[in-house]
Automatic annotation (TrEMBL):
Its EC number is 6.1.1.1. SUPFAM superfamilies: Nucleotidylyl transferase (SSF52374). Belongs to the class-I aminoacyl-tRNA synthetase family. Catalyzes the attachment of tyrosine to tRNA(Tyr) in a two-step reaction: tyrosine is first activated by ATP to form Tyr-AMP and then transferred to the acceptor end of tRNA(Tyr). This is tyrosine--tRNA ligase. Keywords: Aminoacyl-tRNA synthetase, ATP-binding, Ligase, Nucleotide-binding, Protein biosynthesis.
Amino acid sequence: MHIAQGIVKTINVNKMVRAGCKVKIWIADWFAQLNNKMGGDLKKIQTVGRYMIEIWKAAGMNLDGVEFLWSSEEINRRAHEYWPIVMDIARKNNVKRITRCCQIMGRSDQDDLTAAQIFYPCMQCADIFFLKASIYRTIAFHDMLPGFKEGQEKMSKSDPSSAIFMEDDEAQVNVKIKQAFCPPKIVEGNPCLEYIKYIVFPWFGRTFTSMDELISDYETGALHPADVKPALAKAINEILQPVRDHFNNNNEAKVLLNTVKKYRVTS
């Protein structure tokens, strides 16, 4: 799991819980199977789902305000509600429009899609209404963390050096950040500053005024990459250490991690 999915999600969920929300997190095991993740093996997919929950717990997500819902269980339990919504969405859209939605699965409309993958967008759209949340966004946009290499607009799981992962140890974090693209006096497209803005400052309670000051010093050269990188690595390691401790000291979590590591990820 990359750090945005592990830590940024934890930050945002905890903000909502503090604001008085009860957050529903949809563990989309059936959707992963439709998209042939883990070779379509549902048992493996569900093991990975439990592992993800374990990471969020270890990262400090306030689970008192969170409800995890497994798509396979909820859809089976309320099939009479779910499938009419899916069918209604499918009737109102043509195949061309549905295939344009394939990026949500990490696919292209030029790919040779299975029938299951054609159905996937209709089901995902139905989820918005099926979950019956009192607060929901029909469409939402958020900033994505860039990759560590020059020109990488987003992190890539297929390129482990492009991002920090929740499983990375201290040495791996240090090496990745040391090698990261961080041009002096250049703020735009600088991944190290993006990590500080979206992970470090929110985690440690800093304000965006502090971020503005950091950017100002960086643009003038008063703050050098040689100053930024060690401080960033130290902060990221401090954030990840409770997760490492949990998976080292909790036998059940350790077994879960070792099991998931043996799986061959399929795209």
